[in-house]
Amino acid sequence: MVAVTTPRELDLLAQKAMLQGRACLINFFQDDCYACRSLHTKLKKLAHDHPDVLFLKVNGSIEAMRPVFEKHGITKVPYFFCLRHGRILSRFSASLNPEKLAMLRKELVAALHATAEEEAEEQRPQHAEHAPAALELEPAVVAA
């Protein structure tokens, strides 16, 4: 799991995952969130079990990262984005609730198995949104 401290670093890491064909799970959290801290152990295990997925942690308690939360309308934490091939496949909140944990695992597996062709044909506009320059937080540094 990689702790991200600037919007630029978030963009660069998401772009790198895209170029490598890796899925990326972004965990949005805050220091004062009990559910976030409680979920951290589960996320570490998921990261260990899925080394082919890039796990990023974005801390909303860091002043530099607050614009990222605002830009994406994140008002509750923990919150997650699953990305693959430069697309945000899903956005959701999760917790230690068994149903929410099951959804987190399901979305992670779906991102792992997604292919560029499937995403192009996907008819889930409410869940998938195009992010050509990773999360469009900074100008693209790496050409896709």
UniProtKB/TrEMBL annotation:
Residues 1-114 form the Thioredoxin domain. InterPro entries: Thioredoxin-like_sf, Thioredoxin_domain. PROSITE patterns: THIOREDOXIN_2. One of its GO terms (biological process) is cell redox homeostasis. It comes from the Eukaryota. Belongs to the thioredoxin family. This is Thioredoxin domain-containing protein. It comes from Edaphochlamys debaryana.
